[in-house]
Specification:
The protein is α/β, with parallel strands linked by helices. The protein is about 45% helix and about 15% strand. The protein has eight helices and seven strands, in the order βαβαβαβαβαβαααβ. Helix 4 links the parallel strand 4 and strand 5. The radius of gyration is 18 Å and the shape is globular.
């Protein structure tokens, strides 16, 4: 299916690896010009080369790489300078560390809020009015399945991402009449470095080898496996499509059936 977004311009945050990279690959394959960013220049450049090499609709979209920390004001300015009028914004940032809330001071909480709530809000603020004026915009926030089913060791993430979810719930109803949608994708266990780092924490806590804990975690999911970032990217691309203009303010789980609830 032609998603109708060839030639659109996208910012994809934290996109040198993992879920962000999966989104950038899928969008570029649809002919979207993507601006990607990450802190590590070498990893970012390798991702940019991979995205360019895959091709896409009519040869694929252009790729611009900006090495920066998107959670800082300077990083946000650098990315917006490279893509000042995005049609598509994919908000993403590395999750805060796992741990016990008793060990987290105010500075730790502020860092988590900056990364997983405020950065997305400031990027939305910088881009949404232009989208409204152009009568097209797609904003996707990568949050977590923890928004629906909190993960005990990820309290910082539970709090910050839930705050972003609440903010989006109100704004998404104000922009959709201008064909600007805002949605959240809630990933469960995906085969990413972040997930494996969390597995190591759990393995150390349980006193078992990491390999054993990894097998347990995969087997515990109804799908019997971890998700592939490419699967996540394809869902993201659809939410950014011309066909998805009637979907807004939603929290879409993609977790292999891991969330046990009916609603």
């Amino acid at each position: 299916m032609d998603l109708g977004i060839k030639g659109k311009k996208a910012i994809v945050c934290a996109s040198s690896k993992g879920l962000g990279k999966g989104c950038a690959l899928s969008l570029a394959r649809e002919g979207v010009d993507v601006t990607i960013c990450a802190r590590t220049e070498e990893t970012l450049d390798a991702a940019a080369d991979e995205i360019r090499a895959q091709g896409g609709v009519g040869g694929g979209g252009a790729v611009t790489a900006v090495a920066c920390d998107i959670t800082t004001g300077d990083g946000q300015k650098a990315v917006l300078a490279a893509c000042p009028e995005p049609d598509i914004l994919i908000n993403n940032a590395g999750g805060p560390p796992p741990g016990d809330f008793r060990d987290w001071d105010r500075e730790t909480w502020i860092a988590a809020l900056d990364a997983n709530m405020l950065t997305a809000i400031f990027l939305i603020k910088a881009s949404v009015d232009g989208m409204i004026e152009r009568q097209f915009g797609r904003i996707v926030n990568i949050t977590s399945s923890a928004v629906k089913a909190p993960i005990e060791i990820l309290g910082l993430s539970n709090g910050a991402r839930s705050g972003l979810t609440g903010f989006v719930a109100g704004l998404a109803r104000k922009t959709v009449a201008a064909n600007v949608t805002i949605n959240n994708i809630l990933p469960g266990p995906f085969d990413t470095g972040r997930m494996h780092a969390n597995i190591k924490v759990n393995a150390d806590k349980a006193g078992v080898p990491v390999e054993e804990m990894t097998k347990r975690k995969a087997a515990a999911n109804p799908a019997g496996r971890f998700g592939d970032p490419s699967e996540f990217g394809e869902l993201c691309a659809y939410l950014c499509s011309a066909q998805a203009g009637y979907i807004t303010g939603q929290n879409l789980l993609i977790d292999g059936g891991g969330y046990p609830g009916t609603f």
